[in-house]
Fold:
Amino acid sequence: MRKTHQTDAVFRVFNELGIINQLSNAEFQRALAPDLNTSEFGVLNHFVRVGDGKTPSELARIFQMTKPSMTAIIGKLEQKGFVNVIPSETDRRRKTIEITASGRTARDAGIAATAPLIETLQADFPVDDLLAIQPVLERLRIYLDQRRNPIDGL
Amino acid sequence: MRKTHQTDAVFRVFNELGIINQLSNAEFQRALAPDLNTSEFGVLNHFVRVGDGKTPSELARIFQMTKPSMTAIIGKLEQKGFVNVIPSETDRRRKTIEITASGRTARDAGIAATAPLIETLQADFPVDDLLAIQPVLERLRIYLDQRRNPIDGL
DNA sequence: ATTATATAGTTAGTTATCAAACTAATTATT
DNA sequence: AATAATTAGTTTGATAACTAACTATATAAT
Structure:
């Protein structure tokens, strides 16, 4: 029964992950609404932190999301005036996505709206513990991703 | 910039959690299909491991899910003949859910279908690391749950 | 050059979840 | 006893993700 026991424990870890994900996403979403949802905010935040001008496919890969999902998110952001979609000159299949000034404003508002949540967390929960588990999570994420598609990962 | 840095790190942790959850759920789902989805399997597995005869509300609480979601899952399971829905004698609002023989069979098949995934994980990834982070995840889950509903948690 | 293959992005349809509002039944209050 | 408040479960409608299939373009192979 040794192995069964460990298997149960592994299940439980994935279970906890699922619940945490749902709870944190819901809280985050409530703070951001109604201007953005968490996915849209994620894209804008990425543009500000890392840089814009990415293609939809690249963004889909970065956020571990399918292309159709990213198409939908970009469509929403474009409709709200937070990004511009720019056709490539050299390859007529391609587009690059750029954040607009109003997109930056929305992102900053998102940061302002969610910062209190993180601050409360930092006050009430040992954040060092969270940071400590980060490397394991990263390795697990990388492992699962490779496992899905051993060749190129998405 | 100290605090900003830590805030980013916290974001990244939640981000990793989201991706891991999606990847693991997708792989699990693929292994179970087409008989069950992960939520349905979770309910059946709970019945076998912990015991059946729970009400929909209790199940919703256990799985950190809303009541309508649980209604839907039970409906699917009932349709497939994997559970029986039994009206309470003493309280005509209530129902209790019991697993059927064919439900047990489906759960066992689910275990058999997913066991190899866990075994591969155990072979290729340091599972001890996973088990080591479990207590932090559990505390985080409990904290987020209390935070959502300070009085009674869902 | 033609044809086959691969890539970028979209469209269509499905699914699982949620929140809000509802019905029915029970319990508490006046 | 009558009424108000609560609880159990469902229905409805919305949303965000997915897969499968498609169009259009570009690249590779014959």
